[in-house]
Specification:
- With about 350 residues, this protein is an alpha/beta fold.
- It folds into two domains: about 170 residues, Alpha-Beta Complex (Quinone Oxidoreductase, Chain A, domain 1); about 140 residues, 3-Layer(aba) Sandwich (Rossmann fold).
- The protein has eleven helices and 15 strands.
- Strands 3, 4, 5, 6, 7, 14 and 15 form a seven-stranded mixed β-sheet that branches. It has a six-stranded parallel β-sheet with strand order 10-9-8-11-12-13, with helices on both faces.
- Helix 4 packs across helix 10.
- It starts with a strand and ends with a strand.
- The relative contact order is 0.16.
- It holds the Pfam family ADH_zinc_N.
Length: about 350
Amino acid sequence: MKQFWWPGKVNGYENLELREVPVPKPGTGEVLVKIRAVSLNFRDLLIASGRQYVGDALQGLTPGGDFAGEVVSTGGDSAWKAGDKVVATFFLGDIGTGLTDEVRLTALGAGNQGTLTEYRVFPASALLRIPVHMSFEEAATLSCAGTTAYTSLLCGPAPLKAGQTVVVQGTGGVSLFAAQIAIAAGAHVIATSSSDEKLKFVKSLGVHDVINYKTTPAWESRVLELTAGKGADLIVDVIGGESVSKSLSAIRLGGQVIIIGILGNTSSPPDLLRKIMMKNALVRGVTVGDVVMFRELMHLLELHKIKPNVGKVFEFEKTKEAFQCLEKQDFIGKVVIQVAKD
């Protein structure tokens, strides 16, 4: 089978190598899966660049976390059967007891070998069935981006309520998932982007109001205008740095800022602590979520027949081009790689 990897230390996606290795065999309690599609996340770029994500990346690492595939065989003691269409929880060590430091080190494509390989063995307990209304390419976006969005909105100390106002930033995978989930939950959704074309697309998903932050740099003031001076109830911040200060200005008294990304400057603005205090704000960081949240997400997606937005699809041999596309951010939704073929 074919597999991408870094011989030795991780050293940039441009240095990934494609090799031939034997197809692995599942042991007791394990399942052999043919990987049909893999979606890329910003964390894959962080790892490829050598920056620490959560713990150190393995030597000789195969990258990739999100995937969708089908069961080939089992090692016995499993309810899965050949042909079942599956995804896996993002943290392979997550057995439903919540996230711990130890569990977070079991993430695919970092502390565990990843999914940019034609076949991979998984613990049977880590697999979930793909929603019937999704393709492999769509389902490959769920475990990281989808669960992150769901955890941001509907988990934690103050879950989103119907009628509240949510702001999502940009048109990447997590932001679009957050918009779709918030709409399904009955929230009023405001989306920001630097592109009118992308804003037109998010309006087609049901987003209520849009702001072009390139033509309206003080987008936080526009959020206040759209909420009659009150402010948003919750903002999903994918930028970090100075953006967090603007997000705090745009929320209501007692509102929430959920930080799920560090696309911008990671240094803290000098007014950050003051704004948090004066707004009585709840500021929470989210790194994906646990398997319970993933199962709840899958139920919501099936109930509302929500489909993920796949922006661009690449053939397996063009994996480096897929990473480059992700780096340039010239797409809407998710970048997906088709892996094993029929």
